[in-house]
Amino acid sequence: MTTTIKIDITSDVVCPWCFVGQRRLETAITTFKAQSHDNVIFDIKYLPFELGGKNGLTKQGIPKVEYLANKFGASAVASMNARMADLGKEENIAFRFGGNRSNTLDAHRILYLAAQKGIQYKVSEGLFSAYHEHERNIGDDQVLADVYAAAGGDRNEAIAYLKTDQNADVVKGLQQKALQKGVNGVPYFEIEEYKISGAESSQTFVSIFEKILEARQV
C-alpha cells in the first residue's frame, strides 16, 4: 500500500541556503526510500518568497558581488562566499558568485506555471543550477524559457507567458500568505504537520519521515 507525504517548500531561487536545503531533502528522500520505503510517494510543492522584493531590483539586476556588498559590507562578502562554496561541495553544488542578482518575480511565475504542467521540481532544480552554478541571470526571459524547456516544458509557451503579467498577483498573494503564517526567512519546509525553518540536515528530514509513517502505522 502506498502512502503520500506532502512537502511544501517556501523558497527563493537566489537563496543559496534554499539550494542546499533542496539537495539535503533529495538526499533524505533517497536514503529513506532505500530503507524499504519504496511505497512512499513525496508530493513536493514550491511556494514563492521573493527575497529583497522591495529593493527596486530590475529584471537585468546588478552584479551579485555589488548586491551582497551593499547588504552585508564588502569585507564580509569574500568570507561568506568561501563558506558557501565549502558547504556546496558537501552537497554536490558548485557555487559560483559571478553574474547578476535580479528581481525574481518572473522566476516564481515560471515555477507556478511549471507546477500546472507537473514539472515544477525539475524547473526548480534548473533555476537553482542556472543561477548559482552557471551565473545566469534568472530575471532574463530567455534564461527562464531555457530552464523551462530543459525540464520538458514548451519554450514558446514560456516566452509568451513571460511577456504577460499572468499569475503575478497569485504569486504575490502566496508570498503574503507565507508572511501571515510567520515565515520570515527561507528555506521553510512544511512536511505534513512538521515545520522546519532553514536548511536542516538530511537526517533531520529522515527522522520526520519516520515519525509520519509511525503515526500512520504504515
UniProtKB/TrEMBL annotation:
Pfam families: DSBA
Domain of life according to the entry: Eukaryota
Name used for this protein in its record: DSBA-like thioredoxin domain-containing protein
Annotated DSBA-like thioredoxin domain residues: 7-207
Coiled coil ranges: none
GO molecular function per UniProt: oxidoreductase activity
Taxonomic lineage of the native organism: Eukaryota, Fungi, Fungi incertae sedis, Chytridiomycota, Chytridiomycota incertae sedis
Transmembrane segments: none
InterPro entries, per database record: DSBA-like_thioredoxin_dom (IPR001853), Thioredoxin-like_sf (IPR036249)
SUPFAM superfamilies hit by this protein: Thioredoxin-like
